[in-house]
Write a structure and sequence with these properties.
The structure is a single chain. By secondary structure, this protein is an alpha+beta fold. The protein folds into two domains: 79 residues, no CATH class; 34 residues, no CATH class. Helices cover 24% and strands 25% of the residues. It has four helices and six strands; from the N terminus they run ββββαααββα. The chain has a four-stranded antiparallel β-sheet with strand order 1-2-3-4, covered by helices on one side. It has a two-stranded antiparallel sheet with strand order 5-6. The radius of gyration is 20 Å and the shape is elongated. It starts with 12 loop residues before the first strand and ends with a helix.
């Protein structure tokens, strides 16, 4: 199974056509979790007020409100994010992706990587490494 990086950009607008209607999804800040994107949707006069936690939820709420039926779509495939060519064209100019990792109960977000190694610390456990860091 191949993992694809979905390159959401803040205020990015993605449009698709479903049943002769244009649906637009806007990537916005997520008020509930600042580490994840939020999604607003527009079709005709429907949408824009709510911020949804996933692309699929946004497109399905908008679609169901527009057509008054319970059809559901995968937001990633509707917006073309299952197409490697589209993904590659969106990430061509991106030089760094934030890295999310978990160390025991902590979620660590790496947002910048220095081009030179400042110090190397090798220990048996993360706690021993933290004790040797001079920044604390």
């Amino acid at each position: 199974m191949k993992n694809l990086v979905v390159p959401y950009h803040l205020y990015m607008r993605i449009a698709c056509e479903l049943n002769d209607k244009i649906f637009v999804i806007i990537v916005v800040s997520n008020n509930k979790n600042l580490l994840k994107p939020g999604f607003q949707y527009i079709c005709d006069a429907i949408g824009i007020d709510n911020i949804e936690s996933s692309l699929s939820i946004a497109i399905n709420i908008c679609y169901q409100s527009t057509f008054k039926i319970k059809t559901e779509y995968s937001g990633l495939s509707v917006m073309g994010f299952d197409n490697e060519i589209i993904i590659q064209s969106l990430i061509n100019d991106i030089v760094f992706f934030p890295i999310f990792t978990r160390i025991e109960k902590l979620t660590v977000v790496i947002t910048n990587v220095e081009s030179e190694c400042i110090k190397t610390i090798i220990e048996e456990t993360p706690d021993e490494i933290w004790k040797k860091l001079e920044i604390f």
